[in-house]
Specification:
By secondary structure, the chain is mainly beta. It contains 7 helices and 34 strands. A hairpin with an 8-residue loop joins strand 5 and strand 6.
């Protein structure tokens, strides 16, 4: 606690109460006098997911709305609409051309947009760029195409290769030269993204999205899984094989048992990620065409009834935490069945929450961090669909072990499955954008039902409540 000033030097006419009142009045007057800047996000989940630009919209303050439009447009002025442009800063897309309007999307530096009109016009000091029916951004945040190379690294159009450090904490250099300035060191357990640059890779260097460089010898590149789920429209139960196994065939008690030949063994062998019809279950084994397999070798995909409250025209996703299976439905029609990796149930901070949710935001790629005490960091995770605060359905480029618990709470999908689901789940992300905010922008989206049917006394979802922050209900 700060000590009072010396009474001998404090003016007798000044008392503490009027002084505090004056301070509060001054703060209130300043707050009222300041023009509105970036809207405080109504949805806490957007912040938890790291979707909002760090530090807010630094270029979207009142000062940036005063003065003429940018000088770097073609011919010194914005071209007449319609025209394409790129975002020179991270910022929000709003439903209407005003700062108090709802957020409907997020642009990162280098993202591209299509401007269909300006309000009040493109030469006005405080012009808004209208992005068709998708929203509006301040025109001053945009620049003429083409996107310069230094702005491309983390844009929505960027695609990456990925890797992890080996042998300690390798350095990031300012240039592809070991004698150049060291920008920082990366931790050994980080999962990092690199902009493909075959020429520099041949010279032993990997390009970071922010323009830095790392030595190829310090990085082990990942080989993302090529696994894909099933889209055959079959509504019956079936199994995914978790690991290579040999079918146990029924034995005729009247025939003497003999050792199977190599050819017979090969014919009975099933491979990881094979899928087979489920004919039944008996004594800890699953019956499939040609024989049976131990229950622990497979993951079972079962039909899931549509919960009451989800319309026959709605798109919804079901996550079975026990079987580590995701199924996607259009009403009652299953359109995808695949394996996932959910959070580790033996660690509370890594558990995937049960409940009924809505996908509230979609991002082409976004970086994910753990808690302050957790060094977990996965950079530019692709095809991210947020549904439960910071938890999301997303592609996982760092492992190929789908069908077992492995994540920090999210639902890991193979890159191919995540890309398909991202396109299938509404709303459609406009070309060139980084993120679209469904719930904040009041846009149609998909339900996500997460449950563990194996729990004693489990009751499936029957009635859905109103959505708030992506979450509907927790069970």
């Amino acid at each position: 606690m700060e000590a009072d000033p010396d009474p001998a030097v404090r003016p007798a006419s000044v008392s503490r109460l009027p002084l505090l009142a004056s301070v509060f009045l001054l703060v209130a007057l300043i707050a009222l006098a300041r023009p509105a800047t970036a809207q405080a996000p109504a949805d806490r989940a957007l912040q938890n997911a790291g979707l909002l630009p760090e530090g807010g919209e630094k270029s979207f303050t009142f000062d940036d709305f005063s003065g003429p439009p940018p000088r770097d447009w073609l011919a010194g002025n914005p071209p007449p609409p319609p025209f394409a442009a790129w975002s020179m800063t991270a910022g929000y897309v709003r439903r209407e051309p005003k700062l108090a309007s709802r957020l409907t999307g997020v642009l990162q530096r280098g993202d591209t947009v299509n401007v269909t009109a300006c309000v009040p016009d493109c030469k006005a000091a405080k012009a808004w760029a209208i992005l068709g029916a998708d929203g509006a951004v301040p025109l001053r945040a945009l620049r003429a195409l083409p996107v310069p190379p230094e702005a491309y690294g983390s844009s929505a159009a960027a695609r990456y290769e990925y890797g992890r450090p080996v042998g300690g904490a390798p350095q990031v250099f300012a240039a592809a030269n070991a004698k150049s300035k060291v920008l920082r060191k990366e931790k050994s357990d980080f999962r990092l993204a690199f902009v493909p640059n075959p020429l520099m890779a041949q010279r032993g260097w990997l390009q970071r999205p922010d323009g830095g460089w790392m030595r190829s010898k310090d990085i082990k590149l990942f080989t993302p899984s090529k696994f894909e789920g099933v889209h055959d429209g079959n509504q019956q139960a079936f199994v995914f094989v978790r690991r290579k196994a040999v079918l146990q065939v029924p034995r005729d008690p009247k025939v003497k048992a003999t050792k199977p030949t190599p050819e017979q063994l090969l014919a009975r062998t099933v491979q990881r990620y094979d899928h087979l019809p489920l004919l039944g279950e008996k004594n800890g084994r699953v019956l499939v065409p040609g024989g049976s397999l131990a229950a622990g070798v497979v993951r079972i995909v079962r039909p899931v009834p549509r919960p009451h409250g989800i319309a026959a025209t709605d798109r919804w996703v079901h996550v079975d935490l026990h079987e580590q299976v995701l199924t996607a439905y259009e009403g009652d029609q299953r359109v995808l069945a695949t394996l996932i990796s959910s959070g580790k149930s033996d660690k509370k901070s890594h558990m995937t929450h049960e409940g009924t949710f809505k996908v509230y935001a979609k991002s082409v790629h976004t970086s994910m961090r753990g808690k302050p005490w957790d060094d977990y960091y996965a950079e530019e995770v692709p095809w991210t669909m947020h549904y439960d605060d910071g938890r999301a359905l997303h592609g996982a480029y760092w492992h190929d072990q789908f069908g077992i618990e492995k994540s920090h709470g999210c639902v890991n999908l193979s890159p191919s499955d995540a890309a398909w689901l991202f396109q299938w789940i509404p709303p459609k992300l406009p070309d060139g954008w980084h993120s679209i905010l469904a719930v904040s922008g009041k846009l149609a989206t998909a339900w996500v039902v997460v449950e563990d049917p194996s729990k004693p006394g489990h009751k499936p979802a029957r009635k859905l409540a109103a959505v708030e922050h992506g979450r509907v209900a927790k069970r």
